[in-house]
Amino acid sequence: MSNTNHPIMDEALLDRLKEILLKDDRQELAEIKKILESRQHLSEKVSPIIEEHLSLLKENFSTEYEETINKLIEVKLENSQEQILDTIYPALGTMIKKYVTLQLETLKESIDGTVKNTLSFTAIRRKFKSVFTGVDESDLILSNVRSANMEEIFLIERNSGILLGTASIKKTIDQDVIAGMLTAIKSFVEDAFKRESLELEMIEYGGYKILIQTFYSYYIAAAVDGTLTTLEKQNILQSMHDFASKEIPNIPKPLSNENELISSKLKDYFIKGNTIASTKY
Amino acid sequence: MTSKKIILTGSFGVGKTSLFNQFIFSKFSDKYLTTIGVKVNKKTLNIREHQVNLLVWDIAGEVSQDKVPTSYFLGASGIIYVFDLTRPLTYKGLVTDIDYLKQLLPGGVIKIVGNKKDLLNESELNEILGHVDLPVNITTSAKTGENVEQLFIDLATELI
Ligand SMILES: Nc1nc2c(ncn2[C@@H]2O[C@H](COP(=O)(O)OP(=O)(O)OP(=O)(O)O)[C@@H](O)[C@H]2O)c(=O)[nH]1
Ligand SMILES: [Mg+2]
């Protein structure tokens, strides 16, 4: 504001006037300034207020509020999907990893469950393994003393995940759930990485490997316990191809679920003959 | 014994996992743990002289069905489309979603399910059902278990 038209005032008088008029305010102002300047002071004054409000909010966070917030979240989600995707994508990789690990853990547990009660060298080795699960060194140490073992072989309908046939060293539980879960993991991973032409070929968990060969309407999965050399891995994959080209054509179509013929052929081919043992190094 | 693949789908938080857990394990939890990826489990039902092995896929919810990986639906015999009776947004896109699913799975059986009926009284329920654009096959409560087994029995009966 311009003061050219104001009568000229005595500066000192003006100051004096200000002081009288604003005295109380100034004192308060100085106090506030002091508080603001020291964090300690500030938090002492503010914390109880915040705390009080928080506990008030906690007590009174009724379903009414919840509903409003839910609605808000839904609208927000609808309107900003792009943004959300951008935020979520970087975390997705980790989530997939976590998910796959988790599912495999379950899978492994059900496979493990069948040998739990057998006091054999394998069982003891498994015990050791479960104790050391997650520790890389122990895996390394153990991998030197154990050879690979074909535990279980599955023939699974590719799309539905329905089990067509299976054979294993010992009878395991819920093979059709394992088949479904494997298929779900396969779909999930293949979809997550948007590689339509690529098929998931191997899943590794701890000492377990699940080798997968996908054919047109079905896939074959082998659960192998132990360390596989590249040669052994290739042998198994080759056997799967042989099975698909030599055995499957002789089985009446359409392939029905839990087909006895498929199961017995799988047993002859993969379990009795033990593909891995015959090529042991 | 015949095996059938069933998919539980719908928006997030509508109670797919809760229906799955109630059906398979007879359990319910108030906690909401959103599903990542897929979870598969099975239950065998006896329908008259038939034994049907239902392999149920519980998948992550999506706001619209075209966001769900199509590979999940491949080879499925039935789809259970779940919405939340208390959240209109979860059935807003019903017609579009069902059209999409029908075209994805021609000949498949689709059940439209309104869940969380325990949160409503009868007149509220009827009013809401009047606002849903397609006939609802069954209303359920994963919490109390009401109609949960019935839903799967109805579906299995149509599949054999
Ligand atoms: N009162 C009530 N609550 C339910 C019912 N079904 C599910 N809920 C609750 O709703 C929330 C979400 O349930 P979920 O089963 O996890 O939902 P979902 O559809 O699997 O969700 P996503 O996996 O994220 O797609 C949980 O807190 C459940 O406890 C029901 O029938 N009644
Ligand atoms: Mg869920």
Write up what this structure looks like.
- The complex is a heterodimer of chains A (281) and B (160).
- Chain A is 60% helix and 12% strand.
- Chain A has 281 residues and is α+β, with helices and mostly antiparallel strands.
- Among the domains of chain A are: 85-144; 149-278, 2-Layer Sandwich (Beta-Lactamase), CATH 3.30.450.70.
- Chain A has a five-stranded antiparallel beta sheet, with helices on both faces.
- The longest helix of chain A has 33 residues, at 81-113.
- In chain A, 25% of the residues are buried.
- Mean pLDDT of chain A is 69; it is low at 1-5, 114-121, 130-146 and 277-281.
- Chain B is α/β, with parallel strands linked by helices and 160 residues long.
- Chain B has one domain: Rossmann fold.
- Chain B has four helices and six strands; from the N terminus they run E-H-E-E-E-H-E-H-E-H.
- Chain B has helices spanning 16-25, 94-104, 122-131, 148-159, and strands at residues 2-10, 38-47, 50-59, 78-84, 109-115, 138-139.
- Chain B has a six-stranded mixed beta sheet, sandwiched between helices.
- In chain B, strand 4 (78-84), helix 2 (94-104) and strand 5 form a beta-alpha-beta unit.
- The longest helix of chain B is centred in the last third of the chain and has 12 residues, at 148-159.
- At the A-B interface, helix 3, helix 4 and helix 7 of A face strand 1, strand 2 and strand 3 of B.
- The site of magnesium ion (MG) has 4 residues of chain B, from helix 1.
